[in-house]
Amino acid sequence: MAGEVIEKNFQITQLAELDPTPCPCGQxxxxxxxxxxxxxxxxxVEIKQDSELHFHKQMTxxxxxxxxxxxxxxxxxxxxxxxxxxxxxxxxxxxxxxGSNLKILNIxxxxxxxxxxxxx
Length: 120
Prior knowledge:
mainly beta, two-stranded antiparallel ribbon, 53% strand, globular, Jelly Rolls
């Protein structure tokens, strides 16, 4: 993957240099998605206003709001998001974030698996 350095006991990447991938939330730059890692991945996500409600059966997600303001829908409840907000989303929780110029750091545990993404 472009921009990543993989060594035996560590990996380094520049998130901003990774190619974005479309996702239900918007555009995601996904780091540490290689076969050398199974623990977790890290995603820099630019949230789109019309993000799609979805859930995961196996994966827990940690969101950290970097920029912008908006809201997150968690199992039908709406909560505000501002820079510095952290959110833990357990498997099975139907969720989506939306807002204005919203950029988040997302840490999926275990590593993101596209097969574990279900539309609500």
